[in-house]
Design brief:
302 residues; alpha/beta; Rossmann fold; 2 domains; 10 helices; 7 strands; 11% strand
Length: 302
């Protein structure tokens, strides 16, 4: 990986696409249609900049013949480990090895992107969501670097909705503002999400999917902790902003759910029945069977 970083540092590009687990799903070039193409996805056609695509997947080591046919069909030439388009505007680096998310590679690539004033898109095709990785990495930067990342570095063009090996590449692309900057709503807090509703044709749906997942997580983790606290047991989910006090846990849960429902309400996807369910259950949790209460509350995201 260090060789790749040295190369990218010495040879800046305006736009970098990093694909992880991006091996072609078919060896038949005639069947390798745009919906399957994770190597040079169709959204790159709209990028009018110098482009570098970097791919990590150990399965590439077994498929050199396909790659040769694929790139030659596009008019690319090979220079060692790098494939170049005829005008040298696009280059592709194939790394037939496993990618370790815990490695410092991505952080170094993000740092290079800031220093070179470029843009970076990271896409994983293994089924693992990148949102937590992105937020953790984002927290390691400060000041202007953070703002630059929010506008110019994007992890997951599917925004947490479809990041597996069967991703349809014709259905997903980075959401851009009028200046070509990324909408990074996975980094938004609840207030910013509310403010971003309606900014992009796909934004509302992605926000709804994301917020429904968050609602499911909040209800599950906080209510598990609540039940354990009621029984005097050790909390299972410890990375929470509360003590092992049942009432404090429940108040935190209800506050978090209310914030989420406010977003769903603005999106127009919160029914009157669900509003009433939440208001009733925010009052009766002390008097109702804990498990039945939780089951009823899951109807908020079903």
């Amino acid at each position: 990986m260090l060789d790749v970083l040295r190369y990218t540092d010495a040879n800046p590009r305006e736009y970098t696409y990093l694909g992880i687990g991006s091996k072609n799903r078919t060896n038949d070039l005639a069947k390798f249609t745009p919906d399957l193409d994770q190597i040079l996805p169709c959204f790159l056609k709209d990028v009018k900049k110098t482009i570098r695509a970097i791919h990590f997947d150990p399965a590439f080591s077994n498929d050199y013949n396909f790659l040769t046919s694929y790139f030659k069909a596009k008019g690319f030439t090979n220079d060692g480990n790098v494939w170049n388009s005829a005008d040298f505007r696009i280059e592709v680096i194939i790394c037939p090895r496993i990618f370790d998310l815990e490695d410092d590679f991505i952080r170094s690539l993000v740092t290079q992107t800031i220093q070179q004033k470029g843009q970076l898109v990271v896409q994983m095709f293994t089924g693992q969501e990148l949102s937590n990785t992105f937020k953790k990495l984002y927290g390691q930067f400060e000041g202007r670097d953070k703002e630059y990342i929010r506008q110019n570095v994007l992890f997951d063009i599917t925004y947490g909705t479809n990041c597996h090996c069967m991703t349809n590449m014709t259905e997903h692309a980075p959401m851009l503002d009028k200046n070509g900057k990324f909408y990074n709503f996975l980094l938004f807090n609840e207030v910013e999400m509310l403010q971003s509703i309606g900014l992009h044709p796909k934004m509302n749906k992605f926000i709804e999917i994301h917020i429904m997942k968050k609602l499911s997580t909040v209800l599950n983790e906080d209510h598990v902790n609540y039940r354990r606290a009621i029984r005097g047991e050790e909390l299972l989910f410890r990375d929470k902003p509360y003590r092992a006090d049942p009432e404090e846990i429940m108040l935190n849960l209800l506050m978090s759910v209310r914030e989420i429902l406010n977003i769903l309400n603005k999106l127009g996807s919160l029914t009157e029945e669900k509003k009433a369910l939440f208001e009733t259950h925010s009052r009766n949790y002390r008097d109702m069977d804990m498990y039945k209460w939780y089951t009823n509350m899951t109807k908020l995201y079903k």
